Fold this protein.
Amino acid sequence: MKPEIVVWLVRDTCRLSDNPALGRASTLAKSIGAQLVPLACLEPRRWANQQFGLPRVGEHWARFRAESLQSLRDDLSAQGCGLWISAEEPVRALMRARQACQVCTVFGDAPLGTEERLETERIQAEDFQSEVVYTDELFRFDQLPFDLIDLPATFSKFRKVVEKKPGIFPDPPQSIPELPPSLPQPWPDPSEWIEALRNQTSPETEVQTIGGEASALEHWQAYLDAGALSHYKLTRNSLCGPTRSSHLSAWLAHGCISARQIWSDILDYEHREGANESTYWLRFELLWREFFRWYSRACDWTLFRVSGPNDKDADVDQNRRRFVAWSTGNTGCDIVDAAMRELNQTGWMSNRARQLVASHLIYESNLDWRLGAAYFESRLVDFDVASNWGNWAYIAGVGPDPRGGRIFNLNDQADRYDPDKTYRRRWLQ
Ligand SMILES: Cc1cc2nc3c(=O)[nH]c(=O)nc-3n(C[C@H](O)[C@H](O)[C@H](O)COP(=O)(O)OP(=O)(O)OC[C@H]3O[C@@H](n4cnc5c(N)ncnc54)[C@H](O)[C@@H]3O)c2cc1C
């Protein structure tokens, strides 16, 4: 008789703590006497595919993901549990697993973009009993007082609803569940792939970002210990500086730490050290992330068309020469060039810099905003489909911006945020 397994499909949640999908999978496995199988798939379609001639997966994101998976595997193994890794798409890996085991239920994160939704549908079409869990959101779907179709059209409206209506608050973070043992992987494991990516040298950055739950918690604790949260609102728009903003984005995007954990730690911090506008503001930014997650689901494929979710006509082109100048940091606008070079070398740039380079691509280079979004997808260490495509659509005026798009005066911004040119000198030398 084939052994019975319950699968936790690891998508963008590389952690053990505060992981409702893992919690549900392990509870079910224990209750029916099945074995638990955490399964991570490398999704070759993303690695092989290009959009606008650009790779979908970039070196910085890939290194961070490889580190996160290795760290997850080590953490699972310390709990007596394994991690299966497949070089195939999830549905293929599950069908392969079905040859050796009886797959009872598959638990996975609720799909965020169109591709993830289609992948979930493919799994269901192959008759797998599957459940989606809102693993990486602040709020449960059933807490929200609207259906996706009625999602408030702007961030401000969304924030007012979730902040004002009683009963909407992030659940307290869950601790690591007791994990039942798992089966050995029934196919050769692509560990060499992980090793090769992990062995890439990390870029020189102000904040060392290494994938994995332990390094996420260590980084966040150091940020709190430094007291940086108490002046976050005053410094978050800076272009550089290791504690100016939280630098949590890569760990959040790869699910090494949960937004609920950060939220809860901020409340503890406020209790201990005192609350102010800055301590609130990091929660405010987490609400932006939250808004884009629901927005991406509500808009589905329309988020990726040139006219965006608003279906607004745009007079743009995809001129190669202007795009190469922008992407290589050779536009002649020094603040944009510095930021693009930082992105290319490190995989990261501040929120302010992202807004400025996006404004340049859309309103000065007059290019299709999707070229910028695709380029960010291929370079960012913290790429996440909802935050990236949502922010680009917002600035391009085809998304949820009530003002119909954001045009920045780049000279004024450079004078304001880099008055002594430290940032520009650093990246343009
Ligand atoms: C054009 C553009 C593309 C972007 N693409 C991404 C992306 O692919 N992945 C990504 O994580 N963020 C993206 N952002 C949002 C934001 O720029 C980064 O999250 C932030 O700069 C990361 O630095 P931090 O962690 O120090 O941020 P902090 O200022 O410390 O904020 C804390 C956290 O709040 C969330 N957050 C903050 N601002 C935003 C925002 N505007 N939208 C959504 N979430 C936010 C992030 O998870 C961030 O880590 C994009 C912004 C723009 C303008």
Remarks:
- Residues 277-299 form the longest helix (23 residues).
- The radius of gyration is 22 Å.
- The beta strands are 4-10, 35-41, 50-51, 54-55, 84-86, 102-109, 130-133.
